[in-house]
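Researcher: Let's do a round of design. I'm pasting the structure tokens now; please hold your answer until I've finished.
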């Protein structure tokens, strides 16, 4: 399958500084990236980053209800039963990356952050999961080179899956500990 890049936020312009008097909800009113404060631009002082999971991976679930963000268009390939599971996971991750980098660019942020499983769902086993992470990492590097947006930090999620309910590196189950160690 050949991935087709699409636009996810066509009606959202690049967000610009318009000043405190602006009534535009899609404008910066206080943050002016080029304004110099104490010898440095606001952009240099304020290294804003978008958190991948909170913005593009969060399902909206809470203790009192189910998922509320079920129809995000970048997740639709996950429901495409015509694709083999590995391709389905990779295609959805590429769509999510396209949406993310489009938004980063429109916001004018220079950085993003992530946990490994924010970028791409896990595969059938650890080897497949690591292969999928390698594949999406290459795609993200291309996106970074195209946009100039960089990774501020990335880390491993060793708490979100139920396998880690008794800890990761402190887990009494050697198989869980080994899985966590292999992911780090």
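Researcher: That's everything. Go ahead.
Model: Designed sequence:
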């Amino acid at each position: 399958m050949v991935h087709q890049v699409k636009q996810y936020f066509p009606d959202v312009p690049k967000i610009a500084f318009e000043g405190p008097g602006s009534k535009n909800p899609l404008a910066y009113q206080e943050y002016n990236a080029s304004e110099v404060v104490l010898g440095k631009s606001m952009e240099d002082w304020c290294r804003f980053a978008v958190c991948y999971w909170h913005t593009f991976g969060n399902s909206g679930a809470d203790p009192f209800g189910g998922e509320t963000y079920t129809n995000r268009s970048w997740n639709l390939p996950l429901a495409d039963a015509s694709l083999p599971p590995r391709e389905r996971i990779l295609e959805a991750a590429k769509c999510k990356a396209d949406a993310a980098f489009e938004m980063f660019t429109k916001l004018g942020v220079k950085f993003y952050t992530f946990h490994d499983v924010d970028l791409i769902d896990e595969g059938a086993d650890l080897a497949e999961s690591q292969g999928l992470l390698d594949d999406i990492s290459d795609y993200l590097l291309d996106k970074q080179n195209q946009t100039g947006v960089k990774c501020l930090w990335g880390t491993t999620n060793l708490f979100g899956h139920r396998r880690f309910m008794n800890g990761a590196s402190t887990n009494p189950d050697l198989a869980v500990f080994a899985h966590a160690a292999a992911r780090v």
